[in-house]
Amino acid sequence: MTVRGLKEALDLSAFALPEGDRDVRGGYAGDLLSWVMGRAREGDAWLTIMSNANIVAVATLADVSCILLCEGVEPDKGVAGLAAEKGINLLGSGRSVFELSALVKELL
Amino acid sequence: MAETLKFHYDVDGDNFTSAGAASVEVKRKLRQLGLDAETIRRVSIAMYEGEINMVVHARGGSADVYVDKDGITIILADRGPGIPDIDLAMQEGYSTAPDNIRALGFGAGMGLPNMKRYTDEMKIDTVLGQGTTVTMKVFIHPANV
Q1: Where are chain B's structural domains?
Q2: For the structural domain made of B5-144, what CATH number should be given?
Q3: Quick one: CA dihedral B90, B92, B98, B102, positive or negative?
Q4: Contacts of residue B43, Cβ cutoff 8 Å, sequence gap at least 6
C-alpha cells in the first residue's frame, strides 16, 4: 500500500506528503531515535510521538516510508516545511500508538 | 572509482536542530555514486550517531569521509571532554546525555553500539580533557554492488 493509500484508509492528516506514492512495507513504533534508527527497516511506517526537527533526519537516514505522529501530536514549528523539503512524508492521527499500529498492521 | 573521494564537514555544536546535516549530505552523495542501499544506510546511520554524539558531548567537531573502491572511511574528531571508560560507553543503554537532550529522543545509550553494529571496523582514540576521534570503516561487499 502507498503512503497516500494509508492516509486515506486511516483518515490521517497530512503535514507533508511529498512522496505519496512510496510503498509502505511494514511498520515500527518508537520514540528513542537511536533505537528507531537501529531497528526500523527501509520502507516502514514509523509511529512516534516525537515532533522535533530531528525526526526528519532520522526518517531520511533510516529510509522509512513515512512518519506517523500519533496521539494528536503536531509537528514543532518549521518541521512540516523541513519534511516537505527533504522528501519525507509526515502524517498525523489522533489515535494512540497502540491503536494506530494495529490498524496499519491490518492494512499491510 | 579509480581514486579516493574526500568529503569534509564541520559539525556545528550549537545548533541541535540541524544536527545530522552532514550525514544526510553524505547519504545523498553516496546515492549519486550508485552505492547499494544497505551500504549507504549503514554508513549514514553510523555517521549520524557519531555526529549527534559530537553535538551532545563535545560542542561539535569535524567529519571527514573517504570513499574508495573498497569502502567508506568516516573519521569524526572533536575537542570534547573525552570518554573516561570506553567499555562502559559501549554498553547498550549507558548514557551520560543530559535531560534536555533526552527530551528530544536522544540519550538512549545506543549511539556507540549502533556505530559498532553498522560498521565493519571501529576505533576510538580518546584523551581525557583533549578530545575523541572515532574512525569507522564500512566495506563495500562485492555482493552488494
Answers
A1: 5-144
A2: 3.30.565.10
A3: positive
A4: B26, B27, B30, B72, B74, B118, B119, B138
Mean of the pLDDT values across residues A9-23? 98
Cα–Cα distance between B134 and A19 in angstroms, integer?
35
Residue A5 Cα distances to A73, A94, B128, angstroms = 21, 18, 53
Task: Show the cell assigned to A80.
Answer: 512540516
Is the CATH code 3.40.50.720 the one for domain A3-90? no
> B104 to chain A: nearest residue by CA?
A52
Burial B7-41 (b: 16+ CB within 10 A, else e): bebebbbeebbbbbbbbbbbbeebeeeebeeebbb
How far, rounded to the nearest angstrom, does the alpha carbon of residue A13 sit from its chain's CA centroid? 11
ipTM score: 0.80
CB of B71 within 8 Å of a chain A CB? The answer is no
Consecutive sets of 10 residues in chain B, 145 residues long: mean pLDDT of each?
88 82 93 92 94 94 95 97 96 93 90 95 97 97 58
Spell out the residues 6+ positions from residue B6 whose beta carbon is closer than 8 angstroms to its own: B64, B65, B66, B67
The chain A residue lying nearest B110, using CA atoms, is A34
| Residue written as grid cell 559501549 | B90
CA dist B71 and A103 (Å) reads 41
Asked if residues B139 and B120 have their Cβ atoms less than 8 Å apart, the reply is: yes
- B45 and A38 within 8 Å at the Cβ level: the answer is yes
